[in-house]
Description:
- The chain has helices spanning 10-15, 124-130, and strands spanning 22-24, 29-35, 40-42, 45-52, 55-58, 63-65, 68-70, 72-75, 78-80, 83-85, 88-91, 96-98, 101-103, 105-108, 113-115, 118-120.
- The chain is mainly beta and 131 residues long.
Amino acid sequence: xFGDSKGVNKEQQRSKSSxxxxxxxxxxxxxGDIVTEGNLRIDGKFNGxxxxxxxxxxxxxxxxxxxxxxxxxxxxGTVKGNIKSTGLVEIMASGKVFGDIEVQRISIKDxxxxxGKSIMTQVQAEIEYNE
Length: 131
């Protein structure tokens, strides 16, 4: 879903909406837990736990307060809480993360804010191969 994000503008960001299964738009505020097998986009406010999701996009106006568990995540907005990802987390130039990130791969763009620690995980097969 993410691929190469160089030069991605708001228009291109929104054009991927057909890939989104669940949307919390910028007029919405939601509190609780989210469980989805699909992709999730948050442009509004969410306070709670994303128990599971495939790909998560947090738009520039988006705000998450709580734990996030996902495969991949692209952050344009603000996250206050910990992120656990089995794939890639990208913090874009407008993105802010205040919390710890446990991830396989991470990308932090120039201008992004990250206050916390990162823990890089490996796939089990890679660990066994390297031993």
